[in-house]
Every structure is written in structure tokens, then in C-alpha cells.
Amino acid sequence: MSAKTSASEAPAKIGESRGERIRRMLSSRTASLVAVLIAVLWTIPTFGLFVNSFRPTDDIRATGWWKMFTEPSFTLETYNYVLYSTSQGGGLARNLINTVVITIPGVVIPVTFAVMAAYALSWIEFRGRNLLYISIFALQVVPLQMALIPLLSFFSRGLSIGGVTIMPAWELSGVQTIVQVWVAHTIFGLPLAIFLLHNFMRELPGDVMEAARIDGASHSQIFRKVALPLVTPALASIAIFQFLWVWNDFLVGRTFGGGLATQPLTAVLGDLAGTRGFGWTRLPAAAFIAIIVPLIVFLLLQRYFVRGLLAGSVKG
């Protein structure tokens, strides 16, 4: 029986492709153990951050987080101070709300424009379509830092052509400051989102699109009733990526966020320790507040994320 089994398996292994061989190696027990080990090592710092966020300040200064197992001591004073205190390093509840207010439009606006642009570039014939797509693709190589100062100058000076004011200068009020951050995240997020969604749009069956056009459907109807349902997994994965980028952003929020009252949470985390670093014990609680929302969003939507990553990878 064993000789027969080995003889029958030998041709399959000899004739297997490189992709099948790599897939078999990655699904082995050794690869699984290595993946579990990497996951554990990756999670240890986050777990230590979580434990330290509940420990008293004196314990954090004196011992490491692992002392929790032998000398357990927990308190919510650090969270209370970080979220609601009016002293230096406190009052982050306001900045947390700012982050939510920035993130939701910062995801919805670019993803909405990106999916419409991806459909137009994929299924609507117009002159210069390929040149426009290549230009959008090329914008991905432009470093974010190169656009910050020109965009900030644009917001502060406005836009005028031939002495005619096309767009007035933006005043640095609270609402307009938040809008500046929305515009910046939309501009910086559109090239990659359009590029990825365009690839998914091009994989849609052409026969389905042609049948809808024969039935008299307009591009608007095809987009809403045919294309959108088919690219929902890809749309969800792009939205998750954009959410994580906007929520964890520091540079854009710091540059366009205005004063402390309108800045996002990540832009003020670095100031919690104070000028001399005496408040560093507040950082674990503040950092965990900053990562808990993206963690919950990812865990709740991970099935859409995985489906979006796999969409379009297999034809047929």
C-alpha cells in the first residue's frame, strides 16, 4: 500500500508547477509554526503597551510591564487624565473626535471619486483616456512631502488667474481647517485608489456590460446596478486601507490641522511627554486609545479586506 501510494504521488510532485510547490511549502507545519512565532513576537510589544496603559505611573517608572504577572496593580487614572484633563498632556477626547471627523470624510470622499473615475477610465471611451490614466498612475511616485508646502501656500493665498480670484484664501477657522485636511487626504489618496480600482474594474466581464448597454442602460445605471455590486469587495479593501492611512496620519494633520483644538489625535501624541519628557508614562494609554479604533474596524471588516485582496487574482 505504501509503495503504491509513493509511486502515485511521485509523478504529481515531479510535475507540479513552481506556484504549487511554493503553496505546498507555505502550507506546511513548519511554515505555520514560523507564522505563529512571528505573530506572537509582533504582538508582544502591543500587549505590553496595553498592560502599561492600566498600570499606575509609579509602577511604570519603576518596573517593566511583565511585573504585572507577579505584582498586579491596575488603575484608570491615566486614561482619565489623558482623555479629560485640562492640564498639559490631557484633553485628548477633543482630538479623538477631531480624528473621527477627519477620517470619515477622508475615506468617503476619495473612495467615491476613485470608483467613479475607475469606471470612466475602464468602460467609457473618450479622447485622451489612456494618457489621463498614465498621468494618474505617475502621480503615485510623487513624494507626499513635495506637495505639502505648495498645497499649504495654495490654501493660504488662494487662486487667481489674470487678476480674477478663482478661489479665495482660506481663513484658519476650525471648520475650514478640517476641510483643508479633507482636501489634502483626498488629493493624496486618489492616485492609488484610482489605480487599484481601475484594475478591478477592467476585470469585470465585458459581456455583462455589453448586455446592459444593449438593454438600453446608461453609463450611470450600469455603474450603479452592475459595476458597484461586483467591485464591492475591492471597494471595501480600498476603504480599509484609506481608513488606516488617514487615521494613523501624522504629517498631513500636523501641517494642515491648525491649532491644538483642531488637530487629530496622532498629531498631538508626540507632545504628551512634555518638553522635558517627564510625561512619558501617559504615552501607553494615549497610544492605545489611538490604535483601538483601527483595530476594531479591521477585525470587523477583515473578511471584506481578504476578499478584496483576492478579487481579480483568479480568472475564469
Descriptive notes:
With 316 residues, this protein is an all-alpha fold. The protein contains 15 helices and 2 strands. It has helices at 2-15, 18-26, 29-52, 57-62, 77-84, 92-123, 129-138, 144-157, 174-202, 206-214, 219-230, 232-247, 251-256, 265-269, 283-310; strands at residues 159-161, 164-167. The protein has a two-stranded antiparallel ribbon with strand order 1-2. Strand 1 (159-161) and strand 2 (164-167) form a beta hairpin. Helix 3 packs antiparallel against helix 15 and helix 6 packs antiparallel against helix 12.
List keywords for this structure.
MetI-like fold, mainly alpha, globular, 2 strands, 2 domains, single chain, 316 residues, two-stranded antiparallel sheet
Describe the oligomeric state of these chains in a short phrase: single chain
Radius of gyration over alpha carbons? 26 Å
Q: What count of domains describes the coordinates? A: 2
Mean pLDDT: 80
Question: Strand order, biggest sheet?
Answer: 1-2
Order of helices and strands: HHHHHHHHEEHHHHHHH
Question: Strand percentage, roughly?
Answer: under 5%
Concise description?
This protein has 316 residues and is an all-alpha fold. The protein folds into two domains: 21-84, no CATH class; 89-310, Orthogonal Bundle (MetI-like fold). The chain is built from 15 helices and two strands.
